[in-house]
Amino acid sequence: MSSESPAGTGEQRRYEVRTFGCQMNVHDSERISGLLEQAGYVPADGDEPDLVVFNTCAVRENADNKLYGNLSHLAPVKRGKPGMQIAVGGCLAQKDRSTVLDRAPWVDVVFGTHNIGSLPALLDRARHNDEAQIEILESLDRFPSTLPARRDSAYSGWVSVSVGCNNTCTFCIVPSLRGKETDRRPVDILAEVEALVAQGVLEVTLLGQNVNAYGMSFADPEQPRSRGAFADLLRACGTVAGLERVRFTSPHPAEFTDDVIEAMAQTANVCPQLHMPLQSGSDRVLRAMRRSYRQSKFLGILDRVRAAMPHAAITTDIIVGFPGETEADFQATLDVVEAARFSSAFTFQYSPRPGTPAATMPDQVPPEVVTERYQRLVALQESVCLTENQTLVGSAVELLVTADSSRKSAEHDRLTGRARDGRLVHFAPGAGSGASGPIRPGAGSGASGPIRPGAGSGASGPIRPGAGSGASGPIRPGDIVTTTITSVAPHHLMADGGVISIRNTRAGDAYEANRRPTTASTGVGLGLPTIGVRPIEPVSTGCSPGGGN
Q1: Residue 237 annotated as binding?
Q2: Where does the record place the Radical SAM core domain (predicted)?
Q3: 57 labeled binding residue
Q4: 385 known member of a binding site
């Protein structure tokens, strides 16, 4: 498989992956990067790429517009760069198939959610035949987790526990694109977690479309089914030495059980954070959405979580303007938001997706009504966020320092970290320390020079803690700091009084050395167990640009 640049230069081809959508797509993009590097490609890291891969989302209408807008911008770039290739994968590719080439005939490869592993071979064949290639499979032939991965972060990692979804929500297109749920064996998940921790990772997030259904759809027929499998998995993660934080997303209220709450409360490294999608506070709308829980059950889950973990931060998803939603239905949603006291909410204006039952339902809500309700919901949730955050002023928090400091924070010489409950905290490294110099770029930073925490600081060394902190090293992404909250906003906290303590970590060392974790294949695909990385098999059949499978 050749990954040399065209025109016989002998240079390796540079790639760039652009990711739209959910955490599952972000994790799939890590697999795409791992496959490409195994095939000899190298990251572009800011240079002009020879290959651009779009990993797409199909959940919302603007996802289509975003993809095709980006493809249009690349068309003249490709015309001016002989040998450049463009590939489109993910949920939108799985849905649109040959439509991608109809709308953007300069695309070279279209691949779906079920055959990520075919990408290098498809690129080779498109280049060899000088003809676009489409390959869309209807079901997985292996877990994406059996593919190699190049991780985006030195300190935090995604670990998939399952793929697909067995729910039939009327607004959601994901089950038709990702397929039925299939679960990985616990031993394979733990092997991947341990491999990440061995490379310095401190935090993992367990991923699934519905993690609470985990254990009922194992791919391995020899693995006994168990409704308590996810709680057992959380407890097992608690035994992994060096793993400091465990998160998971997303559960489903209909299947959320008390054994998971107990495991969260009793397992020290499981974070007091829960993402619990509400979607609507109206029982009538929930029924139309085919969400098999009601308002009282949802609020009861939150009560039990807070009884076990009083300081748990609970986040949610809410859709405004679902077909047939009345003002009374919307008021029911506002009532739940007021009662639930979410620490954050991902709010969406409903947009019909072709292929979903909701798209053809009667009584579609007028856009201007949806927008007005959406604005009211956002205003209420921001008020709730601010009020709840204000209760944290004066409290000490432990932060995992991250590499995603905002420009505004940098201008004020602040760094950024995540508290154990998932809240974002911008913090000052320490008044009077006399140092505000560069943080060295690391895994995923994409930087070619030092990242300055503040313009005009004039310092020349790494950030040092304030006097009396007792720390012995710089503050780097991946390190752990303790600080005190001094002020708040709806979507973040601030700590401007300096740090109380700093703990340098192996994750911080890896970030500073620009080392990203890599993971090889683990465990089973969808057939017999395998050991090591399964070879990338040649693609045996192809399609012309007008075709599709």
Answers
A1: no
A2: 151-388
A3: yes
A4: no
